Amino acid sequence: MKWILVTALTIASIVALAALIGSRLPRSHQASREQMLAASPEAIWTAITDVEAFPSWRKDIKNAHRLPDRDGRPVWVEEGSSGRMTLAVERMEAPRLLVVRIADPDLPFGGTWTYEITPAAGGARLIITEDGEVYNPLFRFMARFIFGYEGTIASYVAALEKRFARD
To answer: Is the N or C terminus of the chain more exposed, i.e. has fewer CB atoms within 10 Å?
Structure first.
């Protein structure tokens, strides 16, 4: 019985320490990744805006479907292993600029992803910039020290590369 109490206190102490450290971290962060892709800007644009096709090339997405537009701009829901997330386009300048915002105030995080596409020799250059916020101090600790701010972007870019490799 004593070892159960010691184990429980140790776990509670670790969680409390992580939350304390997380409360000292900035709520906002920025992460960015640049990648050359062997595809035209138009092909990249189609891939990143064709919501219904996301599950075919993004292994983290089980289902994605459009919702009614807001202010004339696309809105959709992605369902994956981490749950549901509603996203809304803030700015679209095909085929070079897309800004998407997490449009779900109930999530413990929020922010935008900005996609910049420029033509380059042999394809196009894609820059994805995440301007994120993590509201919960424990999640802030995990985002900074366990998952990393660029982990989601890296997975997304890897999936996009595979998508174009199979064409």
So the answer is: N
CA dist 154 and 164 (Å) reads 16
| 100-113: b (≥16 Cβ within 10 Å) or e | bbbbeeebebbbbb
E strand spans, the chain: 28-37, 61-70, 73-80, 83-93, 97-102, 109-120, 123-134
Nearest to 97 by CA among 82, 110, 116, 118: 116
* Each residue's pLDDT tens digit, 108-143: 999 999 999 999 999 999 999 999 999 999 989 998
Residues 166, 56 contacting (CB under 8 angstroms): no
Distance separating alpha carbons of residues 73 and 122, to the nearest angstrom? 31
Tokens of 55: 């599950």
C-alpha angle 88-103-67 in degrees, rounded to nearest 5: 50
Multiple choice CATH, 2-165, 3.30.530.20, 3.30.70.260, 3.30.70.1450, 3.40.50.10490: 3.30.530.20
Say if residue 95 is preceded by a cis peptide, omega within 30 of 0: yes
